Amino acid sequence: MLSEGDRAPAFTLPDQNGEKVKLSDLKGQTVVLYFYPKANTSGCTTQACGVRDRKADYAAAGARVIGISPDPVKDIDKFADKYDLDFTLLADADHSVAEKYGTWVEKSMYGRKYMGVARATFIIDRKGKIVRVFPKVQPKKHDDLVLKALDELAAA
Predict the structure, then answer these.
(1) Domains (ranges, CATH) in the chain?
(2) Whole-model pTM above 0.90?
(3) Active-site position among 31, 44, 91, 118
């Protein structure tokens, strides 16, 4: 997994509307980039709805939040519509971006091993440098942790 101080790897992915989003187009903005395993699962829904409900707090902190999952566009579109998610979700169907960020990992459930996305959040500064990493963040605690870090970064 990438670390604080690393340059955020460039990417271009489709959003929930099929529009291309490039990380390089967001230069000059603070970006909260979070990777989640699968749309419409309980933990991912909790996390996404938390971001939605704290949108004003992220805006006040000057941060743009983007969620990335290995789901196809049609699935993240349904997810966004179902829960009224009014922020950017990106489809990393071939998991190439998750691989670049080190979040595509071997997982295990009920003794079965498989590859999937490890839940993780990266705060990327205006210059494209990773300034905070939150591996294995709990969905219910995600927003408090990230917003606290954004406040600390602003005060520094």
Answers:
(1) 12-155 (3.40.30.10)
(2) yes
(3) 44
